[in-house]
Fold:
Amino acid sequence: MGDRDDLRKFITDLAVVHGKVVLSSGQEADWYVDLRRVTLHHAAAPIVGRVMRDLTADWDFDVVGGLTLGADPVALAMLHAATDSDRPLDACVVRKAGKAHGLQRRIEGADVAGRRVLAVEDTSTTGGSVLQAVEALQQAGAEVVGVAVIVDRGAGEAVRAAGLSYRAAYTLADLGLTA
Structure:
């Protein structure tokens, strides 16, 4: 099995939780994909980084990040996956709001001004979180090259409508799930 198959197995074994849940979008679902169970797993995280790097290999960017918390382990996995490549990456974390103390930064980590940034998320239903991150990155002077998620729950249309390229490593159908 390759990385894509291995990651799909981690997702279906660890992250898919059956039962009624309310998503951050406010929508109800009969199951939830808790990707933090995968992105923060000792064996799965490195695979996340490799799969997401492969997914976006033809996009030109040198910073990766998104809205905390879902994007953080994805960005870090990609940063670590890039250490042995000729295309190193920096990572950033986008807060939901600027801090009221310290440097009062909304974006932590790499300075994104004038840089090409890939916005990431673990999973996205409406695109709301990742588009909030994109807006903050653009306000900070970044050129957002696109959006990539591990699992798409339906956000592609909204992200593309915002004028951004969009890719997902897996669809719900890939995981044997329906919307």
The chain has a mean pLDDT of 93. Strands lie at 16-22, 28-33, 63-67, 90-94, 107-109, 116-124, 143-152, 166-171. The first strand starts at residue 16 and ends at 22. Residues 3-15 form the longest helix (13 residues).
